[in-house]
Design the sequence.
């Protein structure tokens, strides 16, 4: 047949792999035709002959679209459509029928149908209708993400809206890691102090990945109340709790096909950690108040300014979730360990923020840059950005605007730096790490945090030096 020939001719409608469809039609030929036509295009297609079996599938699976015949055994398509809308189903429904008049069509559209198609129809007619439904769903997802991004941008939360800036060895190493890891579907854990740019790294991972055309959805786990985090991530159904007046999709749904960035994941309550672990293992979410699981295709990038290994040891973070997240563990270096990037970052923020504020950029004199380079920047890149913005607002770099700790290095420090000029790089690195360890009172977790590396890396370095020392004694 005609249906198969038309289906072949209509192959230009695109790929809808991120969408799912349920076909409900008691006519076996029509049901089989729609199933064959859509299975090559959509991520999930199910086809049944009556409302009872359709409801059973809806209880287990999530569908973006239902193609529903009006004349069905038992309960009609229009009756079931009314029940679906009453229960909070927000997806599209296309009604199809061979027997209908204008009054039926108007009733169906008023009842919540997205489209109404008379049989027999051409294959491009049904595919065009499905395409319009999926475009609406895709726009809804993207608009949701864009609204969150605009709110985030307006709040001026820091340098996350910018790219990786700098050419220090530390930032070059970070770029290399991101470039290597990005194409893979691997879960990534980013650890580093507050303000170092963990979201910058997460965005770079997303932009360099095959998911770059799909949404990047950031969520700050520390900013959401513990009792709301499950609903925020997984969604909820109407009536799940007192304020749940409508069914709502969660952030996993909006990140479908893309990347979900879980910032400050160390703040998640233990009960929520258990549920997140299950989602990571099964790739399905269960909205609050629902019995059905919704499949999700999301890459997880998590971040924390805490030492999660230490949190595990203290019983505040699940060990199994830590291992599941830290498939690749990347340490984001603090700004004080890459001072050679400060001038470039200051110039970058000066150009960016002067344009945003509508003021002329300020010249960055050598004495100003020297002062910035000598300051330890406990707030990291975010603090530097705030300093540049404050200076633009006040119109200059008077002494009182410079950070109070921006003092030149002492003669002793300068002499110590000069004494290392003739040493091999490995020895300079060793001396620096040992000084930081000493300043941290021997606390390896704290020293690793200050150095911008993982505790595992620090312990490996120390073990290597111990082995070399033992070899020298033998």
Sequence:
């Amino acid at each position: 047949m005609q249906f198969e020939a038309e289906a072949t001719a209509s192959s230009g409608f695109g790929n809808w792999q991120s969408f799912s469809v349920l076909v409900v039609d008691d006519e076996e030929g029509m049901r089989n035709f729609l199933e064959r036509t859509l299975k090559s295009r959509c991520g999930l297609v199910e086809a049944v002959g009556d409302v009872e079996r359709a409801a059973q599938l809806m209880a287990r699976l999530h569908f973006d679209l239902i193609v529903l015949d009006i004349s069905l055994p038992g309960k009609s398509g229009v009756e079931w459509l009314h029940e679906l809308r009453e229960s909070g189903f927000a997806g599209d429904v296309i009604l199809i029928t061979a027997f209908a008049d204008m009054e039926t069509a108007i009733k169906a559209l008023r009842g919540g149908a997205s489209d109404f198609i008379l049989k027999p129809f051409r294959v491009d007619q049904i595919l065009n209708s499905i395409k319009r439904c999926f475009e609406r769903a895709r726009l809804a997802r993207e608009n949701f993400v864009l609204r969150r991004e605009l709110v985030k941008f307006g709040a001026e939360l820091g340098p996350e809206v910018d790219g990786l800036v700098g050419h220090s060895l530390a930032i070059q190493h970070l770029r290399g890691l991101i470039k290597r890891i990005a194409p893979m579907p691997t879960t990534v854990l980013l650890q580093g102090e507050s303000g170092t740019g963990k979201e910058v790294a997460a965005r770079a991972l997303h932009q360099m990945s095959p998911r770059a055309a799909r949404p990047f959805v950031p969520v700050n786990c520390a900013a959401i109340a513990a009792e709301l985090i499950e609903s925020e991530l997984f969604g909820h159904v109407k009536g799940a709790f007192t304020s749940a007046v409508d069914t709502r999709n969660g952030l996993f749904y909006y990140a479908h096909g893309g990347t979900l960035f879980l910032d400050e994941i160390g703040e998640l309550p233990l009960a929520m950690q258990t549920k997140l672990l299950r989602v990571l293992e099964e790739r399905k979410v269960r909205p609050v108040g629902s019995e059905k699981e919704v499949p999700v295709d999301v890459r997880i990038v998590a971040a924390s300014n805490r030492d999660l290994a230490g949190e595990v040891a203290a019983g505040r973070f699940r060990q199994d979730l830590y291992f599941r997240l830290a498939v690749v563990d990347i340490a984001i270096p603090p700004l004080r360990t890459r001072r050679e990037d400060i001038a470039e970052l200051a110039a970058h923020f000066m150009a960016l923020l002067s344009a945003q504020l509508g003021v002329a950029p300020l010249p960055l004199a050598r004495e100003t840059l020297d002062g910035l380079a000598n300051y330890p920047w406990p707030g990291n890149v975010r603090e530097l950005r705030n300093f540049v913005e404050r200076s633009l607002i006040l119109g200059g770099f008077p002494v009182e605007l410079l950070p109070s700790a921006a003092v030149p290095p002492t003669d002793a420090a300068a002499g110590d730096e000069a004494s290392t000029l003739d040493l091999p790089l490995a020895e300079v690195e060793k001396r620096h790490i040992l000084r930081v360890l000493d300043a941290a009172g021997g606390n390896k977790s704290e020293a690793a945090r200050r150095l911008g590396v993982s505790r595992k890396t620090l312990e490996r370095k120390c073990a290597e030096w111990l082995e070399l020392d033992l070899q020298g004694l033998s």
Summary: The two ends are 85 Å apart (CA to CA). Residues 1-11, 150-162, 404-420 have pLDDT under 50 and may be disordered.
